[in-house]
Amino acid sequence: MNAYDNQLPGGRAPEPGPEHAPTRKGDPIDLAASVYEHGWGPEPVAPTAGAAPAVVSGPVVPEGFLPRPIGPGPSAVRGPWSADGPGAAEPAVPAAGAVSAAGAVPALGAGPVVRPAAFQQPGPLDHVGRKAPAYPAEPTDIPAVPGGDLFGALLPDTVVDGGRFGPVTVRAASVRGDGHRYAAECRQDAVLVVRTGELLLVAVADGVGSQPHSHHGSHGILRMLTAQVAPKADTLLAFLRSGAELDFASLMSRLIAAAADELAEEARKQGRPPKSYSTTLRALLVPADPAVPFRGFVSVGDGGLLRLREGVGWESLEADGGAEGGALISTRTDCLPEAYEHARARLITDTRPGDLLVLCTDGLALPLLKEPELQRWLGERWGREVPGLAEFLWQTQVRVRSYDDDRSVVCLWEAAP
């Protein structure tokens, strides 16, 4: 959520220009500020004088070595491609140390690398719509966070994660938006993928752009939610097994309230008003047991939960879905830690093998709900197979003019039958 919120209808930000462009921040960072205030770990140990950096040698992976899809449909899992195929020519084995045309040194004895015809080499970020966004496609200035906020200064521009858990394959990313990149501001979104017992917890949080410490709030609420859910994982799993939606909603509401209280207390300890940590939250709980089809969903504030079924047609799964299957997007939203009593929790009870669930902040939810070209673009890619991490990140960053907010998303591909 960025500082442009509430300025134009439909979630669109003003075009950048002298009258709208965010002010670039130039305040110096107080390097003496402690980054360990959040319990990140022990203070660093000074390096031994005269110690030389370790150099690790080993074979270089050929640049063209890419995974291949195995299995049908969107549940495909990628593994190494086979070196042999029908009609494949046997390449000459290069001499030791020889460099290929791509600049990589193939391992001796390695067979040819084959690309599928459908593979599109990631390159410059793509965009949908007649006109490209006015902002640069890549980060420019390094964020300069005011007030000596070392936590904000150390937040990376982009985070990508993923893995497999029970019946689902997971891909997740959080990317700083064009507006924050242009203003040299830190990423205010956060994303979470964590296993707790026999449950997978995935979540996204969107710091409110009008609040100065919302990046602390978005990252803090994910950490505190995990701490609250972990001791109750067995109980939550039992509710998901039995389909006890009321019990699930009651317990998750209490856990959200406890996490919000901890977030407010952390803000006060830092001498900051709790409102300055304002953030939205969306989370899904997925059992490891493939025999349990129910998924637990909880949300506070705006964002999106969408489903792509059989590769065609995006469907909003929001409880307050409006016309045309889209979630109602308000110019005002509930935020934690203050609006914990507005947490909404329920079960997704109609999951099918092959479904794709997309949990996202409004940086992706708004254009995905409103722009048919983006629906088609992502549907064509995410509806066919599970992408690798690098491919997923490139796809997540597809650009749409006037939508320049941070973008966080978790995709869950349900295993096909």
Description:
This protein is of the alpha+beta class and 417 residues long. It has a domain at 157-414: 4-Layer Sandwich (Phosphatase 2c, domain 1). It has 8 helices and 15 strands. It has helices at residues 150-154, 178-182, 214-229, 233-242, 245-269, 362-370, 372-382, 389-396; strands at 67-70, 77-80, 127-128, 158-165, 168-175, 189-196, 199-206, 281-287, 295-300, 304-309, 312-316, 344-348, 356-360, 399-400, 407-414. Helix 3 crosses helix 5 (245-269). The chain is globular, with a radius of gyration of 23 Å.
Question: What's the layout of helices and strands?
Answer:
Layout: E1 67-70, E2 77-80, E3 127-128, H1 150-154, E4 158-165, E5 168-175, H2 178-182, E6 189-196, E7 199-206, H3 214-229, H4 233-242, H5 245-269, E8 281-287, E9 295-300, E10 304-309, E11 312-316, E12 344-348, E13 356-360, H6 362-370, H7 372-382, H8 389-396, E14 399-400, E15 407-414
Parallel strand pairs: 3-14
Antiparallel strand pairs: 1-2, 4-5, 5-15, 6-7, 7-8, 8-9, 9-12, 10-11, 10-13, 13-15
Task: Give a short synopsis of this structure.
This protein is an alpha+beta fold and 417 residues long.
Oligomer: single chain
Number of H- or I-type helical stretches: 8
Largest sheet: 6 strands, antiparallel
Low-confidence stretches: 17-21, 26-45, 51-119, 321-331
Strand content: 15-25%
Q: How much helical structure, as a percent, in the residues?
A: 10-25%
Task: Specify the CATH homologous superfamily of the domain at 157-414.
Answer: PPM-type phosphatase domain
CATH topology of the domain at 157-414: Phosphatase 2c, domain 1
Helix and strand content put the structural class at alpha+beta
Task: Give the integer mean of the pLDDT values.
Answer: 77
Based on CA inertia axes, which overall geometry fits?
Answer: globular
Instruction: Walk across the major sheet and give the strand order.
Output: 4-5-15-13-10-11
Per DSSP E runs of 2 or more residues, the count of β-strands stands at 15
CATH A-level architecture of the domain at 157-414: 4-Layer Sandwich
Supply Rg.
23 Å
* CATH hierarchy, class of the domain at 157-414: Alpha Beta
| Topology order in helix (H) and strand (E) letters | EEEHEEHEEHHHEEEEEEHHHEE
**Cα distance, first to last residue?**
38 Å
